[in-house]
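Protocol step 4 of 6: structure prediction from sequence.
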Amino acid sequence: MATPVALRVFEGLARTYRKTWRGSVISSFLNPLLYLAALGFGLGGLVDRGEALGIDRYVSFLAPGLLAATAMQAAAGEASYPVMAGIKWLKTYHAALATPVGSKNLMNGHFLWIALRLTFTCVVFAVFSALFGAVAPVPALASVVPSVFTGMAFATPITAFTSRLENETGLATLFRFGVIPLFLFSGTFYPISQLPGWLLPAAYLSPLWHGVELTRSLSLQTATAWPPILHILCLSAWLVAGLLISYRTFSQRMVK
């Protein structure tokens, strides 16, 4: 995957981000921290009066879930509008494909860049979770791995989806009826056992739920709802399927 040509694509995206990183500070770093502070300590002060979660503080339950959800949102952001811009608005992908860069290398560089962005975002969030006392430092940093994995399980299929769109209307629909509902109903804020029974199958299919389970398990040293290997296999299936489909859809869209 990390061929020299793909690494050049990755380098180009990194150099661009050096000029634009300020625009992502709020969405990538500040918003999740505000969620953690407001819900973890504000709402958590009420939740902590009960013992339904089996932990001492709600903020400790919330922080790992928010870490995985932050990875999902960051991945969705990188795999949607920037891809549409490269294809339709700025046409940077057309320029890249006019060089020896092939469509597959372009996609590989794109995914490498997303992986780095997710790692940076998740490390910052994990550090602040540890500073807030929500999670111990070592487990907090260890939970970066499953959270990045979760983000990549969203990045590849969303890139494939975006590559097929003719305009940005579909992206608004994706966030409104896909990303936001998953954020709310995939175990980030409460166990999915609290959902109506008819919603549970949808939660089980969600990559975010599997990512939340793995991230929370590492952060809090607790057992996962399913054996960890099943969570990993489900995330891997989303990632690999999205990767293969994105190769095909992007090539069909860009290579005439």
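Step 5 (inspection) to follow. Residues 4-254 form one domain.
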